[in-house]
Amino acid sequence: MHLRHIEAFRAVMQAGSMTAAARRVHTSQPQISRLIAQLETLTQFPLFERNGSRLTPTQDGLRFYQEVEKTFSGLAGLETAAAGIRAFSAGRLSVAAMPRLAGGLLARIVARLKQDYPDIMVSIHSGNGGAVREWLASGFCDAGMALLYDDEPGVQIEPVLTMHCMAVLPKGHRLAALPRLRPAHFADEPFVSFPAGTAIRERIDRIFTQAGVERHIVAEAGLGASICALVGMGMGVSLINPLAAREEQNNTGIELRPFAPAVPVVAALLYPPYQQRTRLVDVFSQYASEFMQREMAEFKVRSGRR
């Protein structure tokens, strides 16, 4: 017994005649007749009573049709299940990031992902760098986003793009008249710094030390948003990563300028170290990578960077 026998029988039951059934399944009436005859041989009971051109299902034929419909209902359920799997229906994704990324870029990525896959459930977990690493290393989160200034042990790293830190100045500051700033321009300027002991602080300190420039550090803050707020209040100048600059560019109290020599920062996606990625994680990664690259390209155009 083959599927073509069942399809022919079902078509006859639903259409009421061999001719109408043939039209329904796009074949000829003689082919339908042959398939029904073969099916009756295989089942070893008549499916229809034939009165001239009229077909009337037998009691056995009706019972057999009920079983056929149960099977086709099951197939329809499989089609629905497959569609749900394709759309990640009831799929869950946990993503970790530091607060500024979680509340800005990551939130926009998730919103875009949900437009295309509305049935997935995404949980965003925000914390400091140590918490993000722990959540990924333990498998509590499926993926993470981070700005890296150094190696990140204990997690899988997928670099997305390398960017350079920018100078952030109070609105109207004298240095804003320059198209690009260098360490010498910051000599004796009040400087809002990242905390001592952080990778970004060590990189920035090294650049100024090598240039022989002494800064006057007046405050420290761990987040780019906090640094921009302090700079906007006129407390000093600073260097911040470009994603923080992207988020804070509408802050009317600051201005941004390129800085050289480059202070590189890598925007990366992070994953648990020994966990195979699911298809949903792969889709999220694709969205995140494309989103980051597009937003930073647009930011470079708006900020006049080349």
Automatic annotation (TrEMBL):
One of its GO terms (biological process) is lysine biosynthetic process via diaminopimelate. The keyword Glycoprotein does not apply. The keyword DNA-binding applies. PROSITE patterns: HTH_LYSR (PS50931). Keywords: DNA-binding, Transcription, Transcription regulation. Residues 1-58 form the HTH lysR-type domain. GO terms for molecular function: DNA-binding transcription factor activity; sequence-specific DNA binding. PANTHER family: TRANSCRIPTIONAL ACTIVATOR PROTEIN LYSR (PTHR30427:SF1). Belongs to the LysR transcriptional regulatory family. This is LysR family transcriptional regulator. The gene is cynR_10.
